[in-house]
Every structure is written in C-alpha cells, then in structure tokens.
Specification:
heterodimer, A: mainly alpha, MetI-like fold, elongated, B: alpha+beta, D-Maltodextrin-Binding Protein, domain 2, Dipeptide-binding Protein, domain 3, 4-stranded mixed beta sheet, globular
C-alpha cells in the first residue's frame, strides 16, 4: 500500500466522505434495478406523505412522482453532471494554466486576461446566459457548468507551473533536448497535479450545486430526474408538504458533503508536508 | 359587530397583493386583468357589469342602437370631472375610441376594426359609427374591458404609448393616483369629488404591493399586511390551506367574468398532429378529472368547449367532449397508422416537443401531466422549459413546438377573446391566437357571420356551430375551465359582488374594524 493511500485511510474526514460517496454511487447504480419505471411518470395520487403508502416509501411530490425513485435516479444525474462538468472544467483549466505558466511572457499575459474576463462575471450569471442562449438540454448544461468553472483550476495549475518550470529537474530535462510538449506533460504536469486533484472534488460539489440551482429556477432540463427540479416543484407546497423539497435537499447535502470530505481526505493524503510528517 | 356586517364605515387603507407588474396603468391601451386590478380604480369605462352580469352605465348613462347595427349612441354622465379638475366630455370618449381602443388596445384593434368615427353633436353625446354591423350585445359586453376613457387634453398631440400618464393615470374614478414605485408599490387615495357622491368612496387609500413570490404573498396575507390577494396569486397549496382558516374567505365568486381555460395547443404543422384522429386520441388520453382533483385541488372543472359555462349569453350545456379513455386513445392511434411494436415502443419516430406556458401552476403542472399521460399510450413528450419572452416567441412567432399548454381567457363574448384562437389570418407573432396552422374555411365563415349577426338568437346559434367545429377539429383542447380564486380577509366588505369585481372601481368597498 502506497503511503498516500495509507494517509487517506487514516483521515477520518476522507473515510466518511468515501462511505457517503459509495452510498450515492450505490443509489445511482441500483436505481434502474430497484425502480424500473420512469421516475418522471405518475406513480400515484400527488402529495402522499412518506410512510403513508407502503408502495411509495418516501411518498409522492405535488406532481404525483415517486420521491424514492426520483432520489435514486437523481443520483445518476448528479454524479454524471459532477464528473462530466468537472472533467470539462479541469481539462480546460489544466490546458490553459499549463501553457500560460510554462511559457510565461505575452502568452501568459494574453491567457490570464482571458481568464480574468471569465472571473469578473459571476459564475451563476454566466451560466444563466449560456443556458438562455444554448438551451437547457443535459449535455449543454454540463458543458456550460464546466465552462464557468475552469478559471480556478487554471490559476492553480499556472501557479504550480510558474514555480516548477525553473527547477533543476526541468532544466536538466530541457538540457537533454526534451521537447516542450514532453516537458509539460511528462515532467512538470505530474508534479503540479496533486493540488488540482484535491480541487477537482470541490469543482464536482460546485457543479452539482449549480445544476440544482438552475433546476430550482426551472431552467434545467425538465425531462431528467434532477434533485433541483423536485425542490423547485416542491416550493409551491413548502408550507404544508415540506418533505417534497426537504428530501431531495438532503440528497444534495449528502452528495456535496461527500465530495468535500473526499477532497479533504485527498488533501491530507497528497499534501507533501503531511507525508514528511508521516 | 352588527355595525360591521351592515353599515359601511368610512376610512382605512386596503392593501392588495399583486404578483406581476406590467408597468402600464392605462387600460385604454392595454387590456389585461393585471392592468384593471389597479388602474380601473382610477380610470373608468363607459359601461360595467352589475351583480347579475348585465351591462350597467358608468360614464355612459344610457344608450341606444339603430336597427342596422351601424350606429350606437351613448348619452354621457354630466357633472363628471377628471382628477385634474377639467370636465369630462364626449371629446374624451371620441379620442379614447379612435386613438386608443381602435389603434392600440389589444382585442380592441379587432373589435373596433370597422369603427369609422365617433360623432360628438354635443358635450354629452357620443355616437359610434361602424361601417359593418356591430351587435349591440357584443359592444356592451366588450365595453367593461375595452371601453376605458382617458382624458383627451392629457394625451392629445403626444405619443400615446410614451405618455407619462400611462404610469401616473388621470381618470374620473373614485381613487386618485398618488405614487408608483416600480417593484415596490402603487398608491391611490380617495377622490373627494367623485361623481357618485353619497360619501363614496369609503376607503381612504388603496395600496397595491408587488409580491411576486407566492410563498411571501401567503405570509403577507396571513400576517395581515395585505387584505386581498386577487386573481389566483397564491400557490394552490396555500389557497387550500387558507380556505380552512376562519380569518379568510377563499372563493371564485366575483371572478365569473374572468373565466379561463387551461388548454393544450397542437401544432398542425407536425405531420402526426395534422391527422385529426391523432389529436382526438391525445385528448382522450388525459384523465382530466384526476388532474383537477389532485393537481388543482379541485379548484377547476372539466372544459366543455371554447365557450365556458360562465357565459350566460352563449353557453349551452354539453358534456366534456373528450372523456378519459386510454384504450380508445390507443385504438384511435392504431387506426391512424401509428402502431407500436411492443408495450415499451414509441408510436412516433420523434418525441413531441412540448413548450409549457410559464403562467404558474395550472399550465406548468398540466405540461407535466400531459407528458406523464401520453407516455402511457406510447407517445414520448420532451418538455422544453422557457421564460415568458422565450415561450411567446417560440410558440407564437417561430411556431417551434409540437404541443404547448396555455391560457385562454374568455372575455364576455366569443368575438372579443375566443374566435381569434380558431380563425385564419392572425399575423404571425400575435400571442393567444391561431398560430398552430389550423385552417378550416367553414370555421372562418361561421366566425365572420357571427361577428356581424345582429339577431341575438341567431348569433347564439352560430356560436353553437362554432363550438361544434372547434371540438370536432380540436386544434386546441380547452381541457380545464376555472375561475380565478380570490383570497381575502373577512374584514373586506361589499366585495366580490359583481362578475368582474376585482377589475371594477371598488367605490363602495369598505373595511370592517380589525
């Protein structure tokens, strides 16, 4: 077992996060088997309380949908959006950050001005604009969330590259005649990656929250079982049937918490100073 | 308490919840309940409806029509002054009719299309001259909505649409404009020189507070900050909850003239939907009784056609045309050639694209219900949510939809509000008109004949033909009929006693002591 894995297993936050994440993953994987019906279909009379009907353990929402089925299928959507959107965000961020940090000079200036242009617009406003222009299909929303979230990983990678590019091992590799692409990918990037991996878990949590916020406003894809959709629908019955919003809210809380705790665990595991201490 | 029940008391401030703001307070250029609920306390029409739903004079005292239906004379009330002190005369009526109702006002541009001129032989007579027959009944039923008079001396020679009086109205009504803060409130105070006299109006002040969030609206009425929430401005869940609270009255009474349908419009440009058998099958697939009971808390009833049951002059009782029958719906689709290979298979190659109208719970929940119901008969529906401007351009200008949900608001006479949903020739982009490619020459003929038919009996008979064809061809399914719901404090007295009460002048409304 590598020291990093051992360090992770010793981190209580990381272990709790991992267990929660496995639970969410289990829900996502078992959704089709436990609830074969379309989660958007009419399952029964609307607004049945949890426990009222044994066939519907978590009750129905104000549109007659089975809340339990919705939660399980919603886990798929949330994980999918979390993973795909952070892949887009980190992908763009690493590419731009690496080029800017490695080359410096006018390339760096140009790319950083572009990054700042994105950073000055509040994330959610930019997301609303993208959704208004390109529509609200799941694929569009995922890419849009990725597009509004790439600046932070980008700056992180750039900073790492700036500090690494003049180290002895890089200079030595350059002296051996290594090309830029190999230098970036083979030498500098692996050393710059640990903080990015930690940050990726934060990006995933933020991506899930952004999609939920969009759905709450009724601007996400209404044809998917997204937790935010159900919270938004339940808003009109909040005073009497609060569980319609509370149950998917709890699901979002658990999932986002899982990603954050996993991130903290990874931080403990990958932080070089911690390794020295261990 | 006995005094509170019977004798009106002077004074007090009535605060009203408003959940959408149109930023226009001139009912002579914008016909909408959202305008009337505020502006009609300050600006008055020629005619309104009395408790029985019959026309009663407001700024007009009496009227008579020539037998040919081309000339309608109105004798105007004397001794009426505008809020700025000038006298109200026939010149104001002529100006409002020719410059606003005929040229700008929605619905009015159609209704007054053949209004040639308004003659003013003296200061208190206005004679409407039409070039085609105008049934007197149609005109009188339309005037409460499409007959508000604004002062000519304020508007003449200006750009009417940009006149500052559009948001600071000068009228003849029982309340005078005080202040309008966008997004916050509108305030009007008692007009001491109101022409009705007799101590009217009773209230000192009316404040309309803009509270778009429905939950906040419910909190405001429960805490006593507002006394009236008109036009279904709260969520149905809160309305059902407040109906059990003894402090409030929850009722559709007083909104009979504002009946609306929640509708499903079908785009005939889509190949499958151009087949009337398919359209009928989709209607049969909707269990509307379940929808009304469980999604709308019972605050609605089955629609029976484009003329609602509240229309005393034109409604003939009939059963709901498309009762729920899933097996029949499936059979009809089979017969139309859209079979499905297995239970899980789809009948159409492409899913139907449904744009839900963002007008609140009725239309949004109906969209979900349509999606759920059609899924059961093998028709997949994809919902594409849009904001209000995106919805209006998507449906009514770009025709980029297969199905859409919507509101059909009936306004006193089919010729005012309803026939435009079925007649050809509406300009592209005009909302709430036939934009789904429906074209039946027989339908056009019936609509045109009814619009100029002077005999009330014949007119009613023609509209029965209209209803029959509309149901048979069903380009738009008038699925659910509902009146608006008012929620108000039991302190609010002599309210909701006319069929369009929330749009009336409120001169005799009073507040019992708390």
């Amino acid at each position: 077992m590598s020291p990093a894995v051992r360090a992770y297993l010793r981190s209580p936050a990381g272990m709790i996060g991992l267990l929660l994440l496995l639970a969410v993953l289990g829900a996502a994987l078992s959704a089709g088997w436990l609830f074969p019906r379309d989660p958007l279909s009419l399952a029964g009379r609307p607004l049945q309380w949890p426990g009222q009907n044994p066939r519907l353990p978590l009750g129905t929402d104000n549109l007659g949908r089975d809340i339990a089925s919705f939660i399980f299928h919603g886990a798929r959507v949330s994980l999918l959006i979390g993973l795909a959107a952070s892949a887009v965000a980190v992908g763009i961020g690493v590419l731009v950050g690496a080029v800017a940090g490695f080359y410096g000079g006018w390339v760096d200036d140009l790319l950083m001005r572009i990054t700042e242009a994105f950073q000055t617009v509040p994330n959610f406003i930019l997301l609303l604009v993208l959704v208004a222009v390109f529509g609200s299909e799941l694929s569009v929303i995922t890419v849009a969330i990725g597009l509004v979230g790439w600046t932070a990983p980008c700056r992180l990678v750039r900073a790492e590259f700036l500090s690494l590019r003049n180290r002895e091992f890089v200079l030595a590799a350059r002296g051996l005649g290594m090309r830029d692409a190999r230098l970036i990918l083979g030498e500098v990037l692996p050393n710059a990656l640990p903080p990015v991996i930690v940050y990726a878990s934060v990006v995933m949590a933020v991506a899930i929250l952004l999609e939920s916020a969009l759905a709450f406003l009724g601007l996400s894809d209404p044809n998917i079982a997204s937790w935010g959709n159900m919270i938004g629908a339940g808003r009109s019955v909040l005073r009497a049937e609060w569980y319609v919003s509370a149950i998917p809210g709890l699901a979002i809380l658990v999932t986002v918490l899982a990603f954050s705790l996993v991130g903290q665990g990874l931080n403990d595991a990958l932080n070089p100073r911690m390794q020295v201490a261990a | 308490m006995a005094a509170a029940q019977g004798t009106p008391q002077r004074g007090g401030t009535l605060t009203v919840q408003i959940n959408s703001e149109q930023r226009v307070l001139n009912p002579a250029i914008q016909a909408s309940t959202g305008v009337y609920v505020m502006a009609s306390k300050m600006v008055e029409p020629l005619v309104d409806l009395d408790a029985q739903g019959e026309p009663v004079g407001v700024l007009a005292e009496s009227w008579e029509s020539a037998p040919d239906g081309l000339t309608h004379s109105f004798r105007l009330r004397r001794g009426v002054t505008w809020h700025d002190g000038k006298d109200f005369t026939s010149k104001d009526v002529a100006f409002s009719a020719m410059e606003c109702w005929k040229k700008i006002l929605n619905y009015g541009t159609t209704l007054y299309q053949f209004l040639d001129r308004v003659e003013t032989p003296d200061a208190h007579t206005a004679i409407f001259k039409f070039s085609r027959p105008m049934p007197q009944g149609l005109l009188l039923r339309a005037l409460p909505d499409l007959g508000h008079v604004i002062p000519a001396h304020v508007y003449e020679g200006t750009d009417i649409r940009a006149n500052p009086a559009n948001t600071a109205p000068i009228g003849t009504g029982p309340f005078k404009f005080v202040q309008y803060e966008r997004g916050q409130f509108l305030m009007a105070e008692r007009n001491p020189n109101y022409w009705r006299g007799n101590g009217l109006p009773y209230l000192d002040r009316i404040v309309w507070r803009f509270i778009p969030d429905r939950a906040a609206g419910a909190a405001a009425i429960e805490s006593g900050q507002v006394q009236l929430s008109p036009y279904s401005s709260l969520s149905l869940s809160d309305i059902a909850r407040l109906s059990k609270d003894p402090r409030f009255t929850v009722s559709t009474k007083g909104n009979e003239a504002n009946t609306a349908h929640t509708v499903m419009e079908m785009n005939l440009r889509r190949q499958e939907l151009s087949d009337v058998r398919v359209r009928r099958a989709l209607c049969h697939a909707l269990d509307l009784e379940f929808f009304i009971e469980n999604f709308l808390y019972g605050y609605a009833k089955l629609g029976t056609g484009p003329i609602p049951s509240s229309s005393a002059a034109f409604y003939v009782p009939r059963p709901a045309p498309y009762p729920f029958d899933r097996a029949r719906a499936e059979r009809m689709l089979d017969e139309a050639g859209f079979r499905r290979a297995s239970r899980g298979a789809q009948r159409f190659a492409q899913p139907l694209k449904l744009l839900p109208a963002p007008w609140g719970e009725y239309t949004l929940n109906f969209a979900t219900f349509i999606q759920q119901s059609l899924r059961e008969i093998g028709v997949r529906v994809e919902i594409e949510a849009r904001d209000a401007p995106g919805f209006l351009t998507g449906v009514y200008r770009d025709h980029n939809f297969d199905l859409t949900t919507g509101w059909h608001q009936y306004r006193s006479d089919p010729a005012v509000s309803t026939t435009v949903w079925f007649r050809t020739g509406s300009p592209v982009g005009a909302p709430w008109t036939n934009q789904y490619g429906y074209n039946n020459p027989e339908m056009d003929r019936v609509i045109d004949a009814a619009a100029t038919e002077l005999d009330a009996g014949h007119r009613k008979a023609l509209y029965q033909d209209f209803v029959r064809i509309a149901i048979e061809d069903v380009p738009v399914h008038m699925a659910v009929e509902h009146a608006f719901i008012s929620v108000y404090s039991k302190r609010l007295m002599s309210s909701h006693n006319t069929p369009r009460w929330a749009s009336s002048s409120w001169a005799d409304v009073w507040l019992a002591p708390a």
